[in-house]
Write the structure tokens for this entry.
Amino acid sequence: MRTVFLMLVFLNLAAGNSLAAGVVSTPVEAPSMAVGDWWAFKNHPTGAVTLSVAEVSQGGFTIMNKGKPSTYTPGFNKVTGYYPTTGEAVTYAPHNANFSWPMYPGKTWSEQVTSETATKRVTYNVTAKVIAWEEIEVVANGGQSRQMPTLRIEYQHGKVASTCWYSPDVKNVVKCVSPFPGQTFDVIGFGNKPPD
């Protein structure tokens, strides 16, 4: 009996490890955006906001946020947008370097970025590392709670460190913790048709 029990424990551990290894070894490609994809976020401290894809082209896509467009590369890196707390327009050259595809644990990237508003221009280095696959709880779409596989990414934007969790299922970051104003958030809804 003891031998059978130990064999079952071993088989469960082996199956669990092979599943985990399968997830960990799977690189994540850039999301394929479509008009109508949307995400609702609860920002801290600015409140809730819904973003939706308004246009998709070979050169990238446009996401609307409170009636204002932000443009992205096909690789989901922002080129133009607005600061969430002030609404001030900003451009990034060559882009904000938040993603480098494919992504997988251990992947790193670095890029010099210049952000420019009407009143200032700042050049800084962005470095990022995908740390690991992590299951996190996502509460979305009417309060439904579920565990989702995510890639935890640690960023350094100049002197500012942030941690975000990207979900391939959601096609976006589902959680972020950052000292940047308005950049600590959790997803509270998502889908492929804007909510009513």
Q: What stands out?
A: The CA atoms of residues 120 and 169 lie 37 Å apart. Confidence is low (pLDDT under 50) at residues 1-22. The chain has one domain: 2-26+35-191. The longest helix spans residues 2-24.
